[in-house]
Structure formats: structure tokens, C-alpha cells
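Forwarding the complex inputs:
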Amino acid sequence: MRELSTSGPGDTGMARRDFVTSGIVILAAGMAGLGGTGALVGCTQVALSDKSAVVADEAAEAGHWGLVIDVAKLNAEGNFGRIKAACHQKHNVPLIHDAKTEVKWIWAESFEHSFIDLENTYMNKSIKDLEFPMLCNHCENPVCVRVCPTQATFQRPDGIVDMDYHRCIGCRFCMTGCPFNARSLNFYDPRPYIGEVDPGYPTRTKGVVEKCNFCVERLKQGLAPYCVEESNGSFVFGDLDDPGSDVRKALETGFSIRRRVSLGTGPSVYYLVEGGEPDA
Amino acid sequence: MLEKALHGSWRYWLWMAFLLFLVGVGFFAYVRQFTYGLGLTGMSRDVTWGLYISQFTFLVGVAASGVMVAIPYYLHDFKTFGKIVILGEFLAVASIVMAVLFVFVDLGQPTRVLNVLLYPTPHSIMFWDICVLSGYLLLNIVIGWTVLGAEKKGFAPPRWTRVLTIVSIPWAISIHTVTAFLYAGIPGKDYWLTAIMAARFLSSAFASGPALLIIICLVLRRLSSFKVENSAVQALAKIVLYAFIVNVFFFILEVFTAFYSGVPGHQASLLYLFAGLDGHDNLVFFMWAATVLAFLGIVLLLVPKLRRNPVVLPIALLAVFAACWLDKGLGLILGGFVPNSFEGVVEYLPSANELMVVCGVFGLGMLIMSVLYKIVISVRRAHEGDAH
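Prediction (whole assembly, two chains):
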């Protein structure tokens, strides 16, 4: 597996190929009439690595990508808003203020709502008050993939449940099947609800379903997902099959839970509830 | 034979004009939905399927119910059903067309519908459903049309139609079984995750479909030259009765398991449907109405004197049909979405535009049924005229 790189705050370096890529993005954006804004966004997609710039250019690979969220640390940092904003902005997720038709890739819920079968009346208040990020669980046995009649939703060999927005017929069987409500339909044209279109990722059309994709477009460049990058270490991403990976090390540090395991879908998103960091 | 649908009384044309009007309304509403998106419906992130898919589910049942006439006639040589068996087949044709149309209008990207055939996906139940539904549609069109054509010429139908009718019997069972599997295999939707879902679907179908068929026959007896015999009506009414009792019995089994086990997930949807959940009780009235209608229907059909009464019988059948529709065409699908996976309750109310589309699809289905029935009646009248 290749090392994943994240660009920390204040880092400004740029890999050579990324510079070229940015140039192409600028060119493409210019031709598409998007002008300067597109170019600026293109420049912010900077790959950085503590080893060499070249590593970041090569796709990161894994046997089974997984995400570990240190919930206590995340809540202590209080930066979930930034994580969500980065994910939604970079993926052109429309901002719709209607709970029935909104589109969301990542959002927060309370323990009571996210772990419906673990919750109890006398639960420790500090747990009760925690915010738990919700996103696609990239299940090992994804119901959405099983029920999709066109394979528009499919599972990659590395475990990521990805989508082909051009093949989706909008039947919403995947939404009905997903036991995590992680999927959203574009009930109408989403483009008017996107503040500033990021040319790094396609916008969607009305009538198709979408969800978190574990930033497959970033992994291809050797970069960690946006949420991980913005999280200040509370989101750990890596290969669950590799005992030496960051996710496996993170899981060693404390008690972790997954949502609705009794359903057998095998979520790849783990929540470290306590003890992730000695001072958390 | 189609030309026979072009000659009719002013009453016939008025009826056709009304149906065409419904189709027009539905088409207009669908164009709006097509342009804007599914946001014009009452569906949401949480209630991802609404009236369209629940009507689809219910109509597949009506289509499958043709076997309740076909089995006695074709397998047991029960001649009494001889005159109505083709009405059952053509009712199936109209129902399947409506069912498929309801799936189509439910799609967010309808122009891509052929992706289902372009990328056949055996692990999706939807794929199998489309296969069995189109096969069943074809079977019924071919059988019905050929048998009717032979009848017109005064011949016995060709032998191969008999083979097809035998094939169509398990096929009918399969369409509703596969439709039940759309729901019964989804983890996390406890109201649907039940092994007797397909059995419930079939029993409900075998009550509601024949009930509708009898009602149609009774209407035709009043308005046309097609005179259904009382013996056929009574025999079919008994089938409705027993199928419906089995259906209610199956439902009570669900209630027992949910409430005796005390497992909250299994109770939640039933509580929502019959008592309301977290103050949300849109469907409570309808579910209790279904309960009252169900028991009314059973009592009226069970007592022979009442069942034979020409005024009571249609009321009993309408009660059964309405109860089945409220249970399967409304509560079953909508109730399955409550509560959502965060134990929240998001309710669904169909939009006006959505209701117009529903009317349009029903209008088109009834139009197809009326044309087919008109042909059947005209062929038979001409034939009887020759005989005399």
C-alpha cells in the first residue's frame, strides 16, 4: 500500500505533476467559461507528502479502506463544521434547506439517534452530548449494491462503494435499502444550490442518487479524503487489512463501535468512543 | 378485432372521453414532474417510495389474481368460469401495464430506464421483477388475444394456448412473489423483513383481484350484453372470502410476533400505522378504516344469505377491495419507512401533482381494460347473434 498524504494547514508546497494538472484545470475551466474561480480552486488541490512529492502523485491502494473516527477528539476540537463544509464544497454538494429533499454526504447526529440499539436512559451525559458524524459506511456487504438494478452503485475491490452518476436511473431502491439513510436523491436540479462550483469534481443532475465516496478522486492522487485532512487527526483513514496501518493502530487504542452491526452489512466506519487520546 | 372497440353507444364514448381526460391530466402532470424532478412529489430522503410504488405493488397483485379464475377453469375443468376467464386475463394485462407505468413515473431519470436491460443485474430483485412482469404481460396478451380470435371464428383455441395457460399459472405466482421479495429482503426495514411477506402478498391479491373482477362483471351485467352467471359470481365470491380470511390471519400473525416478542423494531411500524408515533398519525384513520372494512367484508361474505343478496354482495366486495388497498396500496409501503434509521418519523403526503399522475396512470389502465373488454363483448355478441 502507498502512503497517504494529507496537506496540513500552512503547507503550501506543490507537486510538479499537480502543478501541471492545475494548469490543465485552469485551461479547462477557462475554456468552459468558468474563469478565475475555477483556477483558484484548482490551485488549492495541493498534494503534500512528508516523503517526496512524487508519492502523492501515485494512487493510494488498500485491501479494504476504512475510517476510524475518534469521537471524543472530534468533539473536543469542535471542527466538524469545517469538515462538513470542505466535503460538501469540494464535491459540489448542493446546500438545500429542506430536510425532506436535502443532499448530504456527511452530517452529525446524537448518540441516541445514531446508535439506536445501544442507547439507554442513564447513559453518561458526556456521551449523550457527543456529535457523531454520519456518512456512507462503505459496507462490506452493501445492501445498496445488492439492490441496484443497473450496477450504478458498485463495490470496488478495495471495499469502497462508489457510484456512476451517469448510469443511475433514480429508482431509489438503494436509498430504501441503505439502513443508514446515507443516500440522497437530487429531487431537482442541484446546480442552483451550489455556491461555487468546484471543477475538481462533477456536479450532478436531477433524479440521480449520491453519497460519500471516500474521496476516490483524491485517493487516485494519493491524497487522504477531505474529512481526514480537515479533522486534525480525529478522522483516521487507512487499510483495515493491514495490521500496521493507521486505522488498525487507532482501533488498538480504545473501544470502538459501528452502527447497526446486527444487520450484517459490515460497516467500514468505526467510532472510537473513549480513550482515543489519553487527554481526550 | 381492434376495430370492434371503435363502435359503441354514446355511454361508451362518454366513458372513453372521461378516461382520456384522466390520461391527459396525468400526462400534463407528468411533464411537469419530468421537467422539474421528483421534488414535485411528496417523497423525501426518508420516505423514498410513495403512492407510485405502492400502487405498483398493489396492481401486481391484481394482475396475479387472474390465476384464481384460471386454476379452477384450466386445471380442474370448472366450466362455470369459462366466460370470465378471459376477463381475468385482460384485467391482468391492464394491471401489469399500470404497474409498469407506475415504476416508470417513479424514476428520477426515466430516459435511462433501458439501463436495466443494458446492464442486467441478477443480484437485484428489480431486475427479476422486470423479467417476470414483462413475461406475464406477454403471456396474457398472447393467450387472451388468440383465444378470443378463435372464439370469434367459432373454433376451439389452438392447443399451444393451453400450454401457455398452464405456464401462466406458476408465472402469476412468481410475479407477486418476486414483488414481495423487493421488500422482504431488505435488512433494517423491520416491517418488511418478514418471511411471510410473499404469502401475505398472494393472499391479499387473491382476495382483492377477484373482488374487483366480480364488481366489474356485475357492472357489465347492468350496462352491456355480457351477462355473468350467478353461479360464477358466487363461486368467485367464496374464493375472495377464503383468500381474504387467510390474508387477515397472516396479518394477525405479524401482530402477534411483534407484540409478544416485544422487539421494538417490529412494533414501531405497526404502532405508527394504528396508533401514531411521536405525534405523527397520518395513516391511523386509514388503517382503522381498513380494519372495520375487513371485518365487515368477512361477515357479509361468510353468511350465505348475505353473500347471495344482490345488494349486499357488491358492498361486501367493495369493502374487501378497499381494505386490501388500504393495507397494501397504502400502509404496507408507507409504514415500512417509519421510523427511519435514526428513529425519527418523517411523514409522507402525496402532492397534488403526484395525485394527478396517479389518476393518469389509472385512467390509461382503465382505458386499456375498457377497449379489451369492449372487444370481448362485441365478439361474443356477434357470435351469439350468428348462433341464433
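The two ends of chain B are 22 Å apart (CA to CA).
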